[in-house]
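Recall that a protein's primary structure is simply its ordered list of amino acids. Everything else, from secondary elements to tertiary packing, is in principle encoded there. The following example makes that idea concrete.
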Amino acid sequence: MKAWIVREKGEFFCAVVFAETRSKAKVAAMGTDVCENADYVDIMVRRAPTADQYYKPGKRELNWYDAEDRIVMVRDLGFTCDYDGIDPDACARCPARDYCDYYADMDSEEAE
């Protein structure tokens, strides 16, 4: 099973789904929070081969709210939170903070 990053055209938020083909990934994307209201033709899909290894039978997508999945998304795929209005305390509690470029930048700015 292959991992795919999916998002609606023009949107910041994206998800990682598991599917056999690009077209099946688009269909799977329509079942995610980020693409649930998107038209099929407006869903952008790109391969994320580094995440293939995290597929487990029955797993349809990586879950941002699951600590292990979030670490994978940040460490291996470069995901970050939406920059607008990030609460520094929330960053400090994030399970993926050690891998987050945004957190590292914020932490180094505070140190200066």
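The chain has a mean pLDDT of 89. Strands lie at 2-8, 14-19, 43-47.
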